[in-house]
Amino acid sequence: MDWLTLFLGFLFGGLLVYSRLNRFDVISGNAVLEDLTVAKVILLVIGLGALILNTEIAFGLASYHVKPFILGGILLGGLLFGVGMAILGYCPGTMAVSLGEGSLDALSGIAGGLLGGLTFTIAKPLIQPVLGSNLGKISLFSLTGSHPVIFFLLLTVVAAAFILFAFFLHRIEKRKGLNPALNYRWIVSGVGLAVLNSIIFLKAVSNRPIGASTSYPYVADKVSGLTDNTYFSKISVPGHWELIFLFGALVAGLVFALLRKDFKIKAVYSRWAETKGPSVSKRLVWAFIGGFILLFGARMAGGCTSGHILSGGMQMAVSSLVFGVFAFSSFILTGKLFYKK
After folding, report:
1. Which of 272, 328, 242 shows the shortest CA–CA distance to 87?
2. All residues at 6 or more sequence positions from 317 whose CB lies less than 8 Å from its CB, including other chains
3. What are phi and psi of 28, to 5 degrees?
4. What's the CA dihedral at 80, 218, 249, 167 to 10 degrees?
5. pLDDT band at 253 (very low <50, low <70, confident <90, very high)
6. Rounded to an integer, what distance in angstroms lies between the CA atom of residue 316 and that of residue 320?
């Protein structure tokens, strides 16, 4: 099963590499609204993936894994996650892929993320009141009273809206002349990620969604020996799966960089240099800080871009959709302020 997880992670990494979704300049570009690739792919994955996944569930081939709506954790965690993602320029999953391509700032972000995960494990009992009460696993399916006809009618409308919005953003990019070289690669990656996640959801495959952020506290707690607590017991199984999955994504980043002959040890990319200067040490320090904030926020909310926004969005989970709104709001606001020229 570990080999299957590794292979699925490799496919995940390859799809990110294909449309450069793992790159610092692409993710930070979305933060300043100069590159909408990330937003377009996420919208397409949620829209298309929701139709595929819920059809699988209707036929009994997969099941829901909706994250609970823990109010304070979702809202505050979403805000922190967006801030960290803007500063760092990576997500928990894309850091692994970019590290495979030789990005030292991704390595620094991973170190910050590990410390953020460890800190959350230690702080969780203290901040439990801030996280708030558990409002339950709310989704479009539960809100419709589990009525299949009403649910699939609403699902089709909502899914179509997500897909149309993705192409609307693409039209805006074309009008502004952004990303002409990449053209429609985002569609291939979006469709691929929706199909891949739907396959991983299958009971016969992994019976779980994709995810990345749980692996950080899992590794940090293991290394530090902080395993005798209820939180580690809760994350040990998904954390182990995600660690292998992300290693497969890292291998994909390395393999495709070598095949393209553009593997390069690098820490400072163009957007960072334009706004913050060429200092490598400055970039690595900020990447570490961004990684810490990113992972602490992800653990507060119980998920990240892949585990919450993509996987939860495909399930039409209220917690995940609200997390996405708060994360992207702070992501764009931070980007506009942090990357002022």
Report:
1. 272
2. 66, 67, 137, 138, 139
3. -65, -30
4. -30
5. very high
6. 8
Beta bridge partners of 62: 202
Which residue in this structure is represented by tokens 């792919």? 41
The alpha-carbon radius of gyration of the chain (Å, integer) is: 19
Q: How far apart are CA 315 and CA 295, in angstroms?
A: 23
In the predicted model, is pLDDT for residue 178 greater than 90?
Answer: no
3-state secondary structure 214-264: CHHHHHHHHHHCCCCCHHHHHHHHHHHHHHHHHHHHHHHHHHHHHHHCCCC
Q: How many domains are there within the chain?
A: 1
Question: 8: how many CB neighbours lie within 10 A of its CB?
Answer: 22
pTM greater than 0.90 (yes/no): yes
Residues 302 and 124 sit within 8 Å (Cβ to Cβ): no
Q: How many residues does the chain have?
A: 341
The 10s digit of each residue's pLDDT in 297-339 is 999 999 999 999 999 999 999 999 999 999 999 999 999 999 9
Calculate the alpha carbon distances from 187 to 19, 21, 140, 175 in Å: 9, 12, 25, 18
CA dist 154 and 160 (Å) reads: 10
Residue 106 belongs to what domain range? Answer: 2-338
